[in-house]
Amino acid sequence: MHARALLLLLVLWLPAQAVERPPAAAIASAHPLATAAGHEILAAGGNAFDAAVAVSAALAVVEPYSSGLGGGGFWLLRRAADGREVMVDGRETAPLAARHDLYLDAQGGVIPGRSIDGALAAAIPGEPAALAHIAARYGRLPLARSLAPAIRYAREGFEVSEHYRRMASFRLDALRASPAAARTFLRDGAVPPLGHRIRQPDLARTLERLGREGEKGFYAGATAKALLNGVGAAGGIWSGEDLRAYRVVERAPLRGSYRGFRITTAAPPSSGGVALLQMLNILSGYDWEALAETDRVHLATEAMRRAYRDRAEFLGDPGFVAVPVQRLTDPAYAAQLRAGIDPQQATPSSALTAAAAAPGGNHTTHLSVLDREGNRVAATLSINYPFGSGFMPEGSGVLLNDEMDDFSAKPGVPNAYGLVGAAANAIAPGKRPLSSMTPTFVDGPGGTAILGTPGGSRIITMVLLGVLEFAAGREPAAWVARPRYHHQYLPDVLQFEPGALADAVQDELVLRGHTLQQAEQPWGNMQAVWWDREGGRVLAASDPRGEGRAEVRQGAAD
Ligand code: GLY
């Protein structure tokens, strides 16, 4: 066996006591108060899993447009003591009364906005159950302790930022339509001014019940009653059975490799891990660092196009459809796909058989945590659109998701992000909508990367570019800042951030047959941690596009 691979196996398999511990703990998240909440819990004797609960709950309060108790997510965990790796699937589920034609009119057309705004757009939340599960199964502190910073933030409030104002402006109509949401997130029905404090006393009480009673404190009792009353009165279709039936699923993460690095990533119902491994498998056939920039962008685009084609065709909730994960992530399949790539010419998406795929918004959130014992968490959480459905049931303080829009309402008809899908992602009672969230670990002999980002269907290509940066030996500040480009099969355009591609590279790509589209805004909000084993240090970085904070701290576990 190659010496680097052997060293990597040793690092991953030896019991934690036998491997060195990180010299510091690190947390990167999309909001400074959430990062502070995680460090507060580490300082109180919690481990990375307690800290991840604290950061997730804090984000639910201070970044209400991105994730929350009314949403869901995937928490990828690695426990240092025994090397156990698991993906805690807290993805939302379709209500039991949901049918495939929920958002169609009598003529079979998709009713605009119905899967996006208001109570009918909301799937059954998974985040509260996931937080209770992680605390009970993997944490060291009581759930109530880990939720304490979030409860404090909900009571004391947080300050409105420029980003908050942008998100609230974008969802102003949906927020105005829900009296509880408008009271909470607007001021006199308008976007609040900079520095205005958002206080959420109802959410504080809901968090307290969750902390005291565990998941029953959310899915039964006073919170459940408020949710059901509110959703029912607003035309939604939730039932008590939906809340009682909600279960977190522990799933084996997907695993793959890229040039001696071990990739651990999200399993279905996320499409992220499958597509990431497919793209890395295709690209591993090229000498990446030796390529000219135009060749890199061209080949990565062709890999993206093919992975997203398969995403649209084959991926859905594995509890409902057979997802051919092994076949799609098999290096031999990637070799076939690679053989179909012309190094000088774009393949029109119309020339690839099969269905379709979609673009991405910039909502959702990510956190990366490493503690002094080497436990780690990469978690990507969402309520889908900014401020989710915009709907808050009275008395709950819980802003509900609009994750139902991640289903394919009708084959071939795009959702809010332009996504189209196939039968594999059709609505069915109790089914989890297909996701792009891609929390990921990358282990090499020299160190470990923990990373992920929000950004709709662009999440997967952002994580790909981040992994390639890490594999090229660059540090987290470079992974998160890297200019981004994206292709997703359909529409057949190569999107890029302003400034991401030099003029000469753009000209060459057009000559190769690519249709280029410069995005108006940058995208993504990557949060990354690097345990540099070789260098004996820990580094972390928060995407300069966002307002997050990455913080490395010594202390504890000494
Ligand atoms: N709602 C975004 C995603 O799960 O991909």
User: What radius of gyration results from the CA coordinates?
Assistant: 22 Å
| Main pleated-sheet profile | 7 strands, antiparallel
| Mean pLDDT across residues | 93
Biggest sheet: strand arrangement: 6-3-2-10-9-1-18
Bound molecules: glycine
Distance between the termini: 35 Å
Low-confidence stretches: 355-361
Characteristic key phrases:
single chain; 558 residues; alpha+beta; Serum Albumin, Chain A, Domain 1; 2 domains; 19 helices; 18 strands; 15% strand
Outline the secondary-structure elements:
Layout: H1 3-13, E1 25-29, H2 32-43, H3 48-62, E2 72-78, E3 85-90, H4 127-138, H5 143-156, E4 158-159, H6 162-170, H7 172-176, H8 179-185, E5 197-198, H9 201-213, H10 216-219, H11 221-233, H12 240-245, E6 249-251, E7 254-258, E8 261-265, H13 272-283, H14 293-314, H15 325-328, H16 331-339, E9 365-370, E10 376-382, E11 440-444, E12 447-452, H17 459-471, H18 476-481, E13 485-486, E14 494-496, H19 503-511, E15 516-518, E16 527-532, E17 537-542, E18 549-553
Parallel strand pairs: 14-15
Antiparallel strand pairs: 1-9, 1-18, 2-3, 2-10, 3-6, 4-5, 7-8, 8-11, 9-10, 11-12, 12-16, 13-14, 16-17
Helix pairs in contact: 2-3, 2-5, 3-4, 3-5, 5-9, 13-14, 13-16, 13-17, 14-19
The chain binds glycine.
Describe the 3D structure.
- By secondary structure, the protein is α+β, with helices and mostly antiparallel strands.
- The protein has 2 domains: 47-248 and 369-406, no CATH class; 251-360 and 437-552, Serum Albumin, Chain A, Domain 1.
- It has 19 helices and 18 strands.
- The chain has helices at residues 3-13, 32-43, 48-62, 127-138, 143-156, 162-170, 172-176, 179-185, 201-213, 216-219, 221-233, 240-245, 272-283, 293-314, 325-328, 331-339, 459-471, 476-481, 503-511; strands at residues 25-29, 72-78, 85-90, 158-159, 197-198, 249-251, 254-258, 261-265, 365-370, 376-382, 440-444, 447-452, 485-486, 494-496, 516-518, 527-532, 537-542, 549-553.
- The strands form 4 sheets. A 7-stranded antiparallel sheet has the order 6-3-2-10-9-1-18, with helices on one face.
- Helix 13 packs across helix 16.
- The protein is globular and about 60 Å long.
